[in-house]
Amino acid sequence: MNWSTLGAECQIIGGGTPSRTRQDFFGGLIPWATPTDVTRLNGGRFLKATSETITEEGLNRSSAKLLPAGTVLLTSRATIGFTAIAAVAMATNQGFANLICGPRVVPEFLAVWLPTHRDRLIQLAGGTTFKEISKGTLKSFPVPIPPLDEQRRIVDVLNRAAGLKRLAEQAQAKARELISALFVEMFGDPATNPKGWPTTNIGALTSYTRYGPRFPDRRYEGRTGAHILRTTDMGFDGSLAWGNSPVLPVSEEELRKYALTKGTLLITRTGATIGKTALFNGASRPCIAGAYLIEIGLGSQVVPDFVLRFLLSDWGQRKLRAGSRAVAQPNINVPTIRAIELPLPPFKLQQTFAKRVSEVSSVADLTRRAATAAEQTSGALMSRLFGS
What is the mean pLDDT of each run of 10 residues along the chain (388 residues)? Predict the structure, then answer.
């Protein structure tokens, strides 16, 4: 692959801020970008509108320049290394180095390549009050120049991966909404129990409860043993990413004693994440609950998905948090969880609910797996081409 420099391939133009003492410099028709406009895109690539605008007079009486659509906006001061592409002609403040690409560079390609080298850009930045990377440093910054068709292909792969990720996030959000609505439709609001189900408490439905064990005598070694599930492996939506958890060497006796079985509920018991709840549905490797989790083994008289969704409901979360004790940091204990009351609908109705939850979740999971595969492909591509 051929390499060049930003200065050789792009015109690099700074930004500016009109005087804030002149109200007539602001509120015009010219979009005027700040770094916040770019970071607010949250991974989006094109900047179409800005939070502030300036007038022709403000543009002419400042160092700001009107940049053509297609300019790559690179944040270069304090918040360094974030990019966007101007979707329309606009100006920026002095927190940018703006790159007008020459004929050998596709703007979208440059916009995805630069953030992969954010750490290097920050290292090259100078300044004491805040870091800033100079125009001169950027001019000599090396950049790969694949053929234009290859640049467009790379952008297309990354765009598709980003699109699948957005679809997966939307599908997961929709699934959460549908499952929550389904719970209320089938069982009623658990706060008022309008369907008059008999009530019980969680303790009456459990086969065992315990705190996750501690293993202070050894370190994670990442090859053989059991995954130790942490609070960070649990989402607030009931998801559980056991594959991201570290691996600890454990004995056969410890596995027999502590390995999680399918259908076990896990609840975080301390700190800001108190009340996170997930259902362990099995894994390809043994898993053990971490020390900051509470295990709840459920008896055969209740469907685990029903208890999970009860605890994830607004009412269930309020009950969990209300039972926490404020010491050095909030925490909740096993007796408090066992005492939480809940309505108990007929077992067959719970089974029907669990089946419908599985159907809704499977659609979202298909999208998520496709997005994960696309992200892995794009990540490998970025690593191969950009060395990131």
Answer: 93 97 96 96 88 97 97 95 97 97 97 91 85 94 94 86 77 88 96 96 96 90 87 89 90 95 94 88 94 95 96 93 68 92 97 94 77 70 60
Q: How many beta carbons lie within 10 A of that of residue 180, not counting itself?
A: 15
Which residue in the block uniquely carries the two structure tokens 């850009």? 121
Q: How far is CA 233 from the centre of its chain?
A: 12
Residue 168: what pLDDT?
77
Q: Tokens 């499952």 correspond to what residue?
A: 179
Whole-number Å distance between alpha carbons of 210 and 51: 52
The predicted structure's pLDDT at residue 385: 60
Tokens representing 388? Answer: 């990131």
Q: CA separation (Å) from 255 to 244, 250, 267, 286? A: 19, 7, 20, 8
Question: What is the pLDDT, as a whole number, of residue 250?
Answer: 93
Chain centre distance of CA 131: 27
**Which residues pair with residue 240 across a beta bridge?**
234
**Rounded to whole angstroms, how far apart are CA atoms 344 and 92?**
60
d(CA 50, CA 310): 43
pTM of the prediction? 0.68
Rounded Cα distance between 50 and 91, Å, is: 10
Identical fold between 2-145 and 198-344: yes
| Topology (CATH) of 2-145 | Adenine-n6-DNA-methyltransferase TaqI; Chain A, domain 2 (3.90.220)
CA 121 distance to own-chain centroid: 24
Question: Where are the chain's structural domains?
Answer: 2-145, 147-171+345-388, 198-344
Beta bridge partners of 288: 228
Q: Position 122: which residue type? A: I
Contact 67, 80 (CB under 8 A): no
CA–CA dist 302, 202 (Å, integer): 10
Q: What is the pLDDT of residue 248?
A: 93
Output the CA torsion 199→201→207→212 (10° steps).
Answer: 150
Long-range pairs of 169-177 with CB within 8 A, sequence gap ≥ 24: 171/363, 171/364, 171/367, 171/368, 172/237, 172/364, 172/367, 172/368, 174/364, 175/360, 175/361, 175/363, 175/364, 176/237
User: pLDDT at position 340, please?
Assistant: 95
